[in-house]
Write a structure and sequence with these properties.
Elements (H helix, E strand, L loop, with lengths): L6 E5 L6 H11 L3 E3 L2 E3 L13 E3 L2 H9 L3 E7 L2 E6 H9 L3 E5 L2 H10 L4 E6 L3 H11 L4 H15 L7 E4 L3 H23 L2 H8 L3
Parallel strand pairs: 1-7, 1-8, 2-7, 3-4, 8-9
Antiparallel strand pairs: 3-6, 5-6
Helix pairs in contact: 1-7, 7-8
The structure holds adenosine-5'-triphosphate and ligand LQESDW3C.
Length: 206
């Protein structure tokens, strides 16, 4: 499918810092919107329906699958997660840039549908640091953390299918890398269209 807006897909093992990086990026970039996924996972402490996720029952999720309402969906850490067409279609068709925070399975499905999507994988600096971040976040029980650490080994092996890999050791450095990728993609896209106007907009020049 071909749409005018850029599509950025950010994946990472749980706890590597993808949500923190995307949140910081969105605060700096008013031309970027994040897609709100549907999930069957229960909300964590401060999470709100329609803000972090649309929280739905498994039956509701499966009905959406049957109705073809998802661009992609996957089972991750024992729960179902999906990107609805409604979450992104209107935005990218209107030329806005959208970022998806999804797992590697979803990322590869999106690349099939949108070959121009830019796939970015966030790595933690070490396994021990990943574990510490999950523990320090304080949102998940020991069993959930164990499961996510075990799944992280499988997930990290998928990084080779991505267009870019960022190591999130120092937060500000990783954020700089993420910003640079977004900026570079916009420039590339603008240049491809070979219009002076598009290049100037990407550079933020009036
Ligand atoms: N560079 C960093 N250095 C230290 N701590 C970090 C760094 N980046 C993120 N963190 C912290 O690590 C924890 C996990 O980050 P975050 O929730 O963003 O991970 P995530 O990849 O989005 O996980 P999930 O997929 O489970 O949502 C948070 O407490 C966050 O503040
Ligand atoms: N394939 C998809 N994966 C998704 C989507 N939304 C989130 N996720 C991924 O699930 C895990 C766990 O998230 P958590 O919020 O429970 O910690 C993480 O890797 C997310 O990126 C989605 O729509 N599709």
């Amino acid at each position: 499918m071909e749409y005018p807006g850029n599509l950025f897909v950010v994946a990472a093992p749980s706890g590597a810092g993808k949500s923190s990086l995307v949140k910081a990026l969105l605060e700096l970039d008013s031309h970027l919107a994040v897609s709100i996924s549907h999930t069957t996972r229960a909300p964590r402490g401060q999470e709100q329906n329609g803000r972090e996720y649309w929280f739905v029952s498994e039956a509701e999720f499966r009905q959406m699958v049957d109705r073809g309402e998802f661009f992609e969906w996957a089972e991750v850490h024992g729960n179902l997660y999906g990107t609805s067409r409604a979450a992104i279609e209107a935005r990218i068709a209107a030329g806005d840039d959208v970022v998806l925070e999804i797992d590697w399975q979803g990322a590869l499905q999106i690349k099939q549908l949108f070959p121009h999507a830019v796939l970015i994988f966030i790595l933690p600096p070490s396994w021990d640091e990943l574990l510490q971040r999950l523990k320090r976040r304080g949102e998940d029980g020991e069993d959930v953390i164990d499961r996510r650490m075990a799944n992280a080994r499988v997930e990290v092996a998928q990084a080779r299918h991505f267009d870019f890999v960022i190591i999130n050791a120092l937060f500000e450095t990783a954020l700089f890398d993420l910003k640079a990728i977004v900026h570079a993609q916009r420039l590339k896209y603008a240049a491809q269209r070979r219009t002076k106007k598009a290049v100037f907009e990407a550079l933020g020049i009036e």
